[in-house]
Specification:
The complex is a heterodimer of chains A (281) and B (294). Chain A is α/β, with parallel strands linked by helices and 281 residues long. Helix content of chain A is 46%, strand content 18%. In chain A, strands 1, 2, 3, 4, 5, 6, 7 and 8 form an 8-stranded mixed beta sheet that branches. In chain B, the strands form 2 sheets. In chain B, strands 3-5-6-7-8-9-10 form a 7-stranded mixed beta sheet, sandwiched between helices. A two-stranded antiparallel ribbon of chain B has the order 1-2. The chains are: A alpha/beta (281), B alpha/beta (294).
Chain lengths: 281, 294
């Protein structure tokens, strides 16, 4: 398989030598750990809850409550799936509006019970389907953005693989947004970007290189707050170590956010997004 | 496009530009009172050849099929805001090129020359039938109304100003979505504007969106869909994903009415479809009914 050959090449590289398009390949590797892998490894007694209470259950987003170092938390993740069968069941991690509405339901529940929210972001984007449009994909994402900006409990979002467009942002308006070292996060998939701007999907690699999609670029721009190191070759090379790094980061960051007065927390979140954008005046 | 439509082409001049592309005819007419491109225009929807003056007198709505032709932000403000009450906000914000994206500066400059405006949204304060409001009007003639840092910043500032002054906000949307040339900065504008609207909402102030043709992508998936009241012009294209992307994903042709205002109304996502001629009165009435009772 082409992936394996590439994988070998990548393993021999030093991290900083990886180009954005190579990182994108790592971020999309089928063996890359999924949200569910991390949730099971990092938290104790995860109990999954289903459904948006309106239309359906969307398996591309998983969510529920769990125990983190003795503290109740709400955990939500975009789940791409590992096996082919699971990928189909999970719609390849591309949520429909119900997925976003379920995630919002769980976030509001977290707010009610004073639990912090931890989101794992891993999607190419929201699903572009007929039913998704009929049931208001745009409205579902918009509502998440609005509610998350003002949710009165701490939120940490971690991009573990691909953060694609509004479908990723709908789970990443947070007090802290982190990315795994080789994860990517962008306005649109490089394929989509090349198609829209240059009407040529074959220029996706070139698009990846100009779009500034890497954790390192986004940290430099102040879009994300922290980069979590991956083992040489990528997260899948030593899953336990990667999960452990995330766990340590959460253990240090969560208490600080939890101890902030709510108004201060919300103001800081507002001001963080308020400052994003580059322009001349 | 209309060449060869008639044998006697010399008797009639039809603008070679389709109605909803290029420069807004209403504005062009104003800046150039002499003879414009052609005395006649052809409706993109029904093919009717219309005397341009008639089209303008009819607010750029085709007299035959009622198609609502796209109009510029400045024309829109003229149609909606009471004369001499408009005060523009943040007029001089301009885009930088944060990713050093090749060709972006040139494209901005070209759009500025073509449209006579600096960016894809105009914001300000004004009255609608005597009711004071903050308004933001996007312009699809400027880089397809795409949202970059400036569009996000101007709308955010307008919403914050409304919260401060305890005024309603009306946003006229028309946009192809995020400004690709600004990458991740564009994406973050969705969060920034939505957060400002959340604060305006918490202050119990009225927010109205008027969706006009076309409203898609990141604008649909943020402030367009967050109105307390969501209105739309007839026939406007409104959606999240592009029609072609969906067709490729589901491998089937989508019906003609898909993602039109009427489709969204049927599925419960907009409050009301209003024709252009009734828009000002309806907005004025809604604002009046939301006036804070002293």
């Amino acid at each position: 398989m082409a992936f394996e050959a590439l994988n070998k090449v990548i393993t021999s590289f030093k991290h900083k030598e990886l180009s954005p398009s190579e990182k994108r390949v790592i971020a999309r590797l089928p063996e890359r750990p999924t949200a569910l892998n991390y949730i099971e490894k990092i938290f104790d007694s995860f109990i999954e809850f289903h459904g948006d209470r309106a239309f359906a259950e969307d398996a591309s987003i998983i969510g529920g409550i769990a125990n983190f170092n003795g503290r109740p938390v709400t955990v939500i993740g975009q789940q791409k799936g590992s096996s082919t069968e699971e990928k189909v069941k999970r719609n390849f991690g591309m949520p429909n509006p119900e997925g976003y509405r379920k995630s919002l339901r769980l976030m509001k529940q977290a707010e009610k019970f004073g639990r912090p929210v931890i989101c794992f972001v891993d999607t190419q984007g929201a699903y572009p389907g007929l039913g998704a449009e009929e049931r208001g994909q745009g409205e579902a994402i918009a509502k998440n953005l609005l509610e998350m900006s003002n949710l009165k409990t701490p939120i940490i979002s971690i991009v573990i693989g691909e953060g694609g467009s509004g479908g990723a942002l709908a789970m990443a308006v947070a007090d802290e947004v982190w990315m795994l070292e080789h994860a990517v996060y962008s306005i649109l998939s490089p394929e989509g970007f090349a198609t829209i701007l240059w009407k040529d999907i074959t220029r996706a690699k070139e698009a990846a290189d100009v779009m500034k999609i890497t954790a390192q670029d986004l940290k430099r721009f102040g879009i994300i707050d922290r980069i979590i190191k991956e083992p040489v070759g990528g997260a899948h090379k030593n899953f336990t170590k990667t999960a452990d790094s995330i766990k340590k980061a959460l253990a240090s960051a969560l208490p600080i956010l939890i101890n902030k007065p709510t108004s201060e927390l919300i103001d800081a979140r507002y001001n963080k997004y308020r400052g994003m954008g580059e322009f001349l005046e | 496009m209309a060449k060869g439509l008639f044998n006697k082409t010399k008797y009639i001049t039809v603008s070679k530009y389709p109605l909803d592309e290029n420069i807004d005819p209403l504005l062009e007419e104003e800046s150039k009172p002499s003879i414009p491109n052609g005395m006649w225009a052809k409706c993109n929807k029904c093919g009717e050849i219309i005397y341009k003056k008639d089209l303008e007198d009819n607010l750029m709505v085709c007299p035959k099929c009622k198609a609502h032709v796209r109009i510029s932000a400045l024309s829109r403000i003229k149609l909606i805001i009471d004369e001499d009450t408009f005060e523009e906000l943040d007029k001089n914000l301009r885009s930088s090129n944060p990713l050093d994206f090749p060709g972006y500066n040139k494209k901005l400059q070209q759009s500025q020359e073509d449209t006579g405006i600096i960016e894809a949204v105009i914001t300000g304060k004004g009255n609608i039938n005597g009711n004071e409001t903050i308004i933001a009007v996007m312009d699809s003639f400027f880089m397809m109304g795409s949202m970059g840092s400036v569009v996000g910043e101007k709308i955010t500032r307008a919403v914050e100003e409304a919260t401060k002054l305890r005024l309603p906000v009306i946003i006229f949307t028309t946009s192809g979505g995020a400004r690709m040339q600004e990458g991740i900065f564009s994406l973050m504008q969705m969060a920034k504007v939505s957060a400002a609207i959340a604060r305006h909402n918490e202050a119990k102030l009225l927010y109205i969106t008027v969706l006009t043709d076309p409203t898609t992508g990141g604008v649909t998936a943020s402030f367009a869909m967050l109105g307390d009241i969501i209105l739309s012009e007839p026939g406007a294209l409104i959606g999240f994903a592009g029609k072609r992307v969906i067709e490729q994903t589901i491998k089937q042709q989508l019906p003609e009415e898909f993602q039109k205002a009427e489709f969204l109304l049927k599925h419960g996502f907009i409050d009301k479809i209003i024709s252009r001629s009734k828009l000002k009165k309806t907005l004025g009435d809604i604002l009046f009914l939301h006036k804070e009772v002293m």
